[in-house]
Structures are given as structure tokens and as C-alpha cells.
């Protein structure tokens, strides 16, 4: 059995990648976005955290969260979000023919990949690099030509706050080959 090591610093800031099962392009569809937003909101009421950055792409998402001061349990939050979304979307998205023995054993559906990728943010430079990566991601995947064209992102919030210029990422390619982002 695999022994996954996770960061566990209370109150820390974390970068995550979460992927749909078989990379299904579902997350940017309107109804599914509503279900995800509701699952996120309900989970945050029970287990608070701050969303520093978010990008929703058709088959995966990236985000940065900051947990409360004495809390390190991001897994319970992802479990809640995935479970609530799955409950809402099951009639629309569940594929019984994709359920194998392992999925049955772990009581899993066919909407999300089993695990998620996590990275504890180390310092301000690491934070900024991950923020840039998140916001540039739809350009990287060829979904848009400019960061500002992608609607499912916290980029627009940061433009309104004056942190990013509106044309950020339009003319410059962000290369950070030494980083891993869980894709």
C-alpha cells in the first residue's frame, strides 16, 4: 500500500491541483460550476479557509489556500468538496462501466481522480510563482491567448485590486521549468 507524505503545518498556505477522472472536460460547464461553487461554500462553512487564488479549467483546477492558524487538515476539505460535488453531479456524470474493483473497494465515483497534488508554499517568492502559474494556466493550455480572456479565475479580482495589470501575461511567456505543479 502506498504511503503518501503530506505537508501538515497548521495555518500554512498550500497550492493544489485537482483533476477530473479520465480528464473529463466538465468543470467549466455552467451547471457543474454551480455545483462546485455550492460544494466549496458548504465546505468552507464547516471547515473555514481562505482562497488566495483559483483557476478552473475544463478538466482540472489549481488553487492556493491558507488554512486557519491551528488547522492543517486540507484533506478533510477536499474530501468534503469532492463528495458534495459528486452527490450533486452523480446522475449526470457517474459512469457505472468505469467502476472497477478498486473504485468499489474505496467507495469512489467516476468524477474525480482519487488523489490531489499539494505543495506547501515556502516563502513570498514561491507564493508569487504559484500565483503566476495559476493565472497563466489557461494560456499555457491554449484555451485563450491572454490571461484576461479566461473568466474562471481569481486573476480578475487581482486586477481590480491593482495587483496585476489587466494585460499581464498577454505578451510574456512565463517559464518556470524547475517547478512541479501536479499536472
UniProtKB/TrEMBL annotation:
One of its GO terms (molecular function) is transposase activity. It comes from the Bacteria. InterPro entries: RAYT_transposase, Transposase_17, Transposase_17_sf. GO terms for biological process: DNA transposition. SMART domains: Y1_Tnp. Signal peptide: none annotated. This is Transposase. NCBIfam families: REP_Tyr_transpos. Residues 9-137 form the Transposase IS200-like domain.
